[in-house]
Amino acid sequence: QVQLVESGGGLVQAGGSLRLSCAASGRTFSSYVMGWFRQAPGKEREFVAHITWRGGSTRYADSVKGRFTISRDNAKNTLYLQMNSLKPEDTAVYYCAARQFGQTSYDYWGQGTQVTVSS
User: Fold this and answer.
1) Non-local CB neighbours of 81 within 8 Å, separated by 6+ positions
2) Rounded to an integer, what distance in angstroms lies between the CA atom of residue 33 and that of residue 15?
3) Which has fewest Cβ within 10 Å: 42, 43, 53, 72?
C-alpha cells in the first residue's frame, strides 16, 4: 500500500523559509515522478513543482521559480520542498503526489500540510 506523508508545514512571516518533507513508502519509486501541489482557500489545486525520482529532472511553476527548490533523497525515500522568500500568497495546503513516468495523472496523494505566511 502506497503512503505519502507530508510534514514541515507551519506559520512563518513573509520573507521566511520552510522545508516540507514527504515520506514515501509502499513501493519502489524509481520510475515515478514526484510532485508538490498546493490549494489555497477558495481556489483550485495548482501545480508547484515536480522531480523525476531516477534522474532528478525538475520543473517549477512560474510563481515559485527561483524561490522554491524540490529535491529527493533516494536512500530515505523522501521528497523535499525548500521554500524561501515566502509570500502571503504562498499560503495553502501543500500536497505531495506521485505518478508513473510518462503518465499525466497522479496516482497517489498525501494528506497535505498547512503552510501559512503572515504579512
Assistant:
1) 19, 20, 22, 36, 48, 49, 68, 69, 70, 94, 96
2) 29
3) 42
| Predicted confidence (pLDDT) per residue in 62-119, tens digit | 999 999 999 999 889 999 999 999 999 999 999 999 999 999 999 999 999 999 999 9
Contacts of 95 (CB under 8 A, 6+ apart): 6, 36, 37, 38, 39, 45, 109, 110, 111, 112
Do the Cβ atoms of 49 and 64 come closer than 8 Å? yes
Phi, psi (deg, nearest 5) at residue 90: -85, -5
Ranges assigned E (strand) in the chain:
3-7, 10-13, 18-25, 32-39, 46-52, 58-60, 68-73, 78-83, 92-100, 108-109, 113-118
Q: Give the three-state DSSP class for 5.
A: strand
CB-CB contact of 17 with 80 (8 Å): no
Identify the residue whose cell numbers are 496516482.
Answer: 107
